[in-house]
Amino acid sequence: MLNIVGIFLAIFLSFILFTKKNKLKADKILSIWFFIVGLHLFLFYLSSIINQYYQPYLLLGASFPLLHGPMLYFYTNALTSQNKISFKEYFLHSLPIVIFYITLTTFIFLPHQEKLLVFTQKGLGYETEKLIRKILIYASGIFYVILSLNLLYKHSKNIQNNFSDTEKINLVWLRYLICSMAIIWLAVFTGNKAFIFSLVAIFVILLGYFGIKQVGIFTQTLSNSPSIENNQSISQIPDTQITSLKFEENEFNTKILKNSLSSSYLSEVHQKLIELVDKEKPFLNPELTIAQLASKISVHPNYLSQAINLLEEKTFYDYINEKRIDEFKKIIFKPENQKYTILALAYNCGFNSKTAFYRNFKNVTGLSPTQYLKQQNIQLEDN
Fold it and tell me: Mean pLDDT lowest for which of 62-76, 113-127, 152-166, 202-216?
């Protein structure tokens, strides 16, 4: 029953994504992936109900496990817009599938009765080919989960160097998706197909549920603005705008490192930054980006990023949020602020979510806001 629900839901979600207006590249990849998952579940279900006479022909779909890893990687890459995958790279990603079918060649051309005999004897006489296929499937799962997590890690570092608020663009839900795939792949090592495909069906159900809650994945893009509005997912932002989050970081930073910016120039940029922060308090803007800050002191965002990274030994995200925490610690002592709640003052300092404020406060001070206020003998309402 669980498999049947998974099949219909996967095909249904694939259709929704395929018919979605203003589809992004990530939507197209996810639509194809859902269809593959649905077809894979269907083939497994079919193998459990059809006559054994026809089962050898289902091996033609046995390469499907090798498709899920690349699809996860392509989807992660499309969402984080880090690398444009060339035709050559697509070909390399398809090589394991080609090798897989090469190992099946002799079996495919056997007469039907011999196929049936090999199948019923669980691959007797084809042990080497079977081992190669197993290694390909196991290696594929491990390789693509690691590759996808690496892309997500780079994305996380990238946005922390460019944004002061990452709550809406950190793609935490994608980390859960990748980890879910990792769990399924661990189940593959058990060899229990019923258990594996039950997990796949649950994966589809959960992805459908959380995906629908994640505005923008299964719905039409709500805005063409490059700014990220409340409850807007990263998948709503056009690919070109997501790519712009990088500020050409990899290429530009490579040039910076090669040219070895002088420490005196970095110190000059850093001094300008300190003066600006003390005078104008730009960190009070919840949506502050490094591009906006850099424009105020007339330097390239990458120069400013390098100055913060090297001289403050922090990311832009950590630097700005530390300034917000410092501001909070100052204003709580003012008598006129005693009537406000902790969260109201946090918002006033540039935070736009309770989660971000509490997490950053703990990271900076080692205490929760409530513990810190108690230590300072200050009483404020928690919310």
Answer: 202-216
CA 362 – CA 342 distance, rounded (Å):
14
Distance CA(102)–CA(90), nearest Å, equals 19
DSSP 239: H
Query: Among candidates 220, 228, 239, 240, which has minimal Cα distance to 17?
Result: 220
> Looking at the chain, how many residues does it have?
383
Say how far apart CA 32 and CA 44 lie, in whole Å.
Answer: 19
The dihedral region occupied by 171, where left means phi > 0, alpha psi between -120 and 50, and beta the remainder, is left
Average pLDDT over the chain reads 83
- Round to whole Å and give the CA distance between 300 and 77: 26
383 vs 374: CA distance, rounded Å: 15
- C-alpha to C-alpha distance for 42 and 264, rounded to whole angstroms: 65
User: String of b and e for 153-163 (b: at least 16 CB within 10 Å)?
Assistant: ebbbebbbbbb
Q: Whole-angstrom Cα distance, residue 228 to residue 254?
A: 29
What is the C-alpha to C-alpha distance for residues 54 and 156, in angstroms, rounded to an integer?
49
The C-alpha atoms of residue 44 and residue 47 are separated, in whole angstroms, by: 5
Task: State the pLDDT at residue 260.
Answer: 53
The confidence score (pLDDT) of residue 210 equals 66
What is the pTM assigned to this prediction? 0.76
3-class secondary-structure state, position 180: helix
Measured in degrees and rounded to the nearest 5, phi and psi for residue 109 equal: -90, 5
Alpha-carbon distance of 361 to 45, in angstroms, equals 51
Domain boundaries, the chain: 2-233, 249-375
Q: Which CATH architecture has domain 249-375?
A: Orthogonal Bundle (1.10)
CB 297 within 8 A of CB 271: no
